[in-house]
C-alpha cells in the first residue's frame, strides 16, 4: 500500500506521513518494557498534497492532536501488534481528513414572515392578559 485512501477521489501518499514505533503505556507486564508496539503517526498539514481549503479546515479543527507547527500527532496503542496499531493510526488520520474534506453548508439568513410576527405578538398579548387576571383586583 503506497497510498492512504481518504474517500473515492482523495488519496494521500504514505511518504507524506512518518510512522514510528514507540513503547506503549499502561498495563502489559514485562513484555511492555521490551517491545515497541505502539505506533506514532506524524502528518505535516502544510507540506501535504491536500487541497488548500481542506488544509485550512483541518488546521481549524485539529484539536489536541495538532501541534503549534501544524503537525498532527496520532498515537495508537490499543492493539498488541505494531501492524494493527499502525493501521489504526492511519484510519484515525483518514477519518480526521474525511471530516475536514466536507465543505460546510453556507447558512442562509432568514426573516420571520409577517404572519409569524403577528402570531408571536398575539401570543404575548394573550399571555399578558392571563397574568393580569392573576393580580388582585384594584380597589
Which key features would you list for this structure?
139 residues, alpha+beta, Double Stranded RNA Binding Domain, three-stranded antiparallel beta sheet, two-stranded antiparallel ribbon, 4 helices, 5 strands
- Percent of residues in beta strands? 15-25%
Low-confidence stretches: none
CATH architecture: 2-Layer Sandwich
Average pLDDT works out at: 85
Dominant shape? elongated
Q: How many discrete domains?
A: 1
N-to-C CA distance = 89 Å
What features would you describe in this structure?
The chain has 139 residues and is α+β, with helices and mostly antiparallel strands. The chain has one domain (3-101): Double Stranded RNA Binding Domain. 39% of the residues lie in helices and 20% in strands. It contains 4 helices and 5 strands. The strands form 2 sheets. The chain has a 3-stranded antiparallel beta sheet with strand order 3-4-5. It has a two-stranded antiparallel sheet with strand order 1-2. β1 and β2 (10-13) form a beta hairpin. α2 (52-60) crosses α3. The longest helix is centred in the last third of the chain and has 21 residues, at 114-134.
Amino acid at each position: 500500500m503506497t497510498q492512504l485512501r481518504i474517500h473515492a477521489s482523495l488519496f494521500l501518499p504514505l511518504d507524506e506521513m512518518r510512522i514510528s514505533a514507540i513503547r506503549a503505556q499502561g498495563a502489559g507486564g514485562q513484555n511492555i518494557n521490551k517491545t515497541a508496539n505502539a505506533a506514532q503517526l506524524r502528518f505535516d498539514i502544510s507540506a501535504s498534497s491536500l487541497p488548500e481549503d481542506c488544509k485550512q479546515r483541518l488546521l481549524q479543527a485539529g484539536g489536541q492532536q495538532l501541534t503549534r507547527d501544524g503537525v498532527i500527532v496520532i498515537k495508537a496503542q490499543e492493539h498488541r501488534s505494531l501492524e494493527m496499531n499502525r493501521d489504526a493510526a492511519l484510519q484515525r488520520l483518514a477519518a480526521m481528513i474525511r471530516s475536514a474534506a466536507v465543505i460546510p453548508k453556507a447558512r442562509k439568513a432568514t426573516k420571520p414572515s409577517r404572519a409569524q410576527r403577528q402570531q408571536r405578538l398575539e401570543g404575548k398579548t394573550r399571555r399578558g392578559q392571563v397574568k393580569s387576571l392573576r393580580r388582585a383586583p384594584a380597589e
